[in-house]
Amino acid sequence: MRGPLLRDVAQQAGVATGTVSNVLHNPAKVAPETLARVQAVIAELGYVPNAAARQLSRGRSGSVGLLVLDARNPFFNDLAAGVEEAAGSMDLAVLLATSAERADRERLYLDRFEQSRVDGLLVTPVGGSVKQLKAIRDRGTPIVLLDRLATTPGFSSVAVDDIEGGRLAGQHLVDVGCRRIAFVGGPVTLEQVRNRLVGAGRAAEAAGVALSHLATTRMTADEGRRVGSEIAAMPRRERPDGVFAANDLLALAILQALTLAGIRVPDEVAVIGYDDIAFAALAGVPLSSIHQPSYQMGRRAMELLAATMQAGGDSRTASQQVVFMPELAARASTLRYGTRVRPANGVPVEPLA
After folding, report:
1. What's the rounded Cα separation, in Å, for the pair 52 and 348?
2. Which of 121, 265, 310, 336 has the fewest CB atoms nearer than 10 Å to its CB?
3. Residue closest to 315 by CA, chosen among 197, 156, 184
4. Which letter does DSSP use for residue 285 in this model?
5. Which helix (H) or strand (E) holds 144?
6. What's the pLDDT band for 348 if we cut at 50, 70, 90?
7. How far apart are CA 79 and CA 68, in angstroms?
8. pLDDT (tens digit, 9 = 90+) per residue, 67-111?
């Protein structure tokens, strides 16, 4: 059984369909008595406006799409919260999807968002989607890249300097005495992973210490547990004495695997992550991490997208690249007894006694 239509409301209220439309979208144009009568009929019939028809007539949906790598990662939850806060103040809804770090899912959701006529897109790309993103943009949908610095002309972006973040993590492990450092992360198709590895490599090279790369297929806790178990099974003389994981999910799982194997963190292996999610400080051994201002990044990206939407949707003429600087959050997972470390923000941090 079909629900009531706009013409049903108009007929019962004794007004034109245009009057009902004004009641829904431009009530100031309707006389108070007529407004009250039509609203009463809407409530009586249980009429729900047809959003699909409305967006076709207006050419817009009142929503924006947000496509992230992994919605289960608290970092992206905080990012989404910042986007929603800014979007809400603009009377826009946010439609969230996750690519699960898969290019095929990314292509699918980009298609679906465009078919849904979203007013704009915020995308954390997996990689290799530049052609599709350009095509969507050129057809009139504004796009801002999030958690990745745009290298293609015509796109605005909001990101953190991941090379500097990787360097901070690598330098911190060097400063606490590590001489065999392992970087854990992947796939390398993710630009964030590549940049964090590059930064750590620069710190290791400058200090003359060894840096290895233990690759993962995804940036998940399951992969962290797998790598952590592999590290724990290594002979002590071959085992890394410092681990830099490309995100906190990996790092926390590695920390757990090492602890369960009886390996003391940080005395035998120091562990640092990336993102500084809330759970990092709550771990049994509080996790050192590289802090990203995720909430602020989400807000700023939504503000950039809104500015592009208001300018008519063409981001090519006024693209902006916003880069936040990462900070070291040093905690017990790296601070060995007796060490004293001064993070980049200048605040002295001492290990727990």
Report:
1. 56
2. 310
3. 156
4. S
5. strand 143-146
6. very low
7. 9
8. 999 999 999 999 999 999 999 999 999 999 999 999 999 999 999
| Per-residue confidence band for 345, with pLDDT thresholds at 50, 70 and 90 | very low
Closest CA to 214 of 222, 223, 206: 223
Asked which of 54-58, 88-92, 201-205, 274-278 is least confident by mean pLDDT, the reply is 54-58
pLDDT score for 129: 79
Structure tokens at 2: 């079909």
3-state secondary structure of 322: strand
Cα–Cα–Cα angle for 120, 122, 126, rounded to 5 degrees: 135
Q: Which residues contact residue 262 at a Cβ distance below 8 angstroms, ignoring those fewer than 6 apart?
A: none
Residue 226: closest CA among 201, 256, 265, 204: 256
Buried b (16+ CB within 10 A) or exposed e, 33-55: ebbebbbebbeeeebeeeeeeeb
The interaxial angle of helices 130-138 and 103-115, nearest 10 deg, is 10
- Assess contact for 180 and 242: CB atoms under 8 A: yes
Domains of the chain, CATH where assigned? 6-49 (1.10.260.40), 61-160+294-324 (3.40.50.2300), 162-292 (3.40.50.2300)
Q: Which residues pair with 321 in a beta bridge?
A: 157
**For residues 233-251, average pLDDT:** 97
Distance between CA 107 and CA 129 in Å, rounded? 7
Phi–psi pair at 69, nearest 5 degrees: -75, -40
Band the pLDDT of 28: cuts 50, 70, 90. confident
**Contact call for residues 155 and 133 (beta carbons, < 8 A):** yes
Which residues, in sequence order, are bridge partners of residue 95? Answer: 65
What pTM did the predictor assign? 0.78
- Tokens 């504004």, located at residue: 142
The better pLDDT of the pair 48, 37 is held by 37
As a whole number of angstroms, the distance between CA 158 and CA 297 comes to 6
Contact yes or no for 123/134 (Cβ under 8 A)? no
Question: From residue 39, how far is each of 7, 12, 17 by CA, in Å?
Answer: 14, 11, 13
Inform me whether the pLDDT recorded for 288 exceeds 60. Answer: yes
pLDDT of residue 350: 42
Q: Which amino acid is at 289?
A: S
